[in-house]
Amino acid sequence: MAGPSEQKNQTVSLVLGSGGARGLAHIGVIQELEARGYGILAISGSSMGALVGGIHALGELQTYADWVEGLSQTDVISLLDWSFSGGGMISGDKLMRKLKDLVGDRDIQDLPISYTAVAVDIHSGREVWMSDGPLFDAIRASIAIPAVFAPHRYRGRTLVDGGLLNPVPVAPTLRTLTDLTIVVDVNGPAPAPPVDEDEDDHDDNAGLLRRMLGYVESLGMNGAPTAERLALSEVLMRSLETMQAALTRHHLAVFRPDLVISIPKNTCMVHEFHRATPVIELGRTTARERLDYLEENGSPGAPY
Is residue 218 among the annotated active site residues? Predict the structure, then answer.
């Protein structure tokens, strides 16, 4: 059995799962891995996992973390460019411009860490692995949640959220020889209440952004918001989460990674980026617990 010092010198292939704002937990996981001396040589991600993983591969994760931890609900809303054309409520152009201004952009093949973003070709129904070309084209395609973000046209294809078919894309990391494959699943079982729940959310079970998404959605459908219409976006998100949880179980059973770090699916809603600080901290503490067990016992133990 390897001792703690040997464990900490190990290299890692890191798989970052989809899950909207819960994917901010990936930041805390990466910070804990680096603090312990693990070397991340390869990253693959779907949706929010592709975004956080790509920015880390770019070397700008702390810049992004500092920025996202300062966002309020109003700030989040200001980054959304509403649109009723192009296949989604949000075009995503404004957010991409902000992120490029914040951290820059490079071609994936020039990054110091092997990186793959996973998307889905909506016409062929197949996974698309993006491991070259502009980083933020790959990220934009991978985060295109159906009906929320417009699909991304890239290299003659119409691409949407990679989590539709592969929420924890282990396979792309198999090209890189490392000591450990670690999966971060942010759609795990929900044994605990959500972190840092806002008082307003508790009162009416809907935060400001959720209400706005529902309102805009209802206007786009028939011009008059109703209670039934306001629930549609939440129904869509929960349906996607249920599907992704089943796909995650399948992929983990097939690929059997060395370690799974599971973040509960009720940590926050997919749009609650204003809760970055507690979600990042949850990622860090959960990683700490799982890595402590791995280092002390030489085996990962139960993932949940």
Answer: no
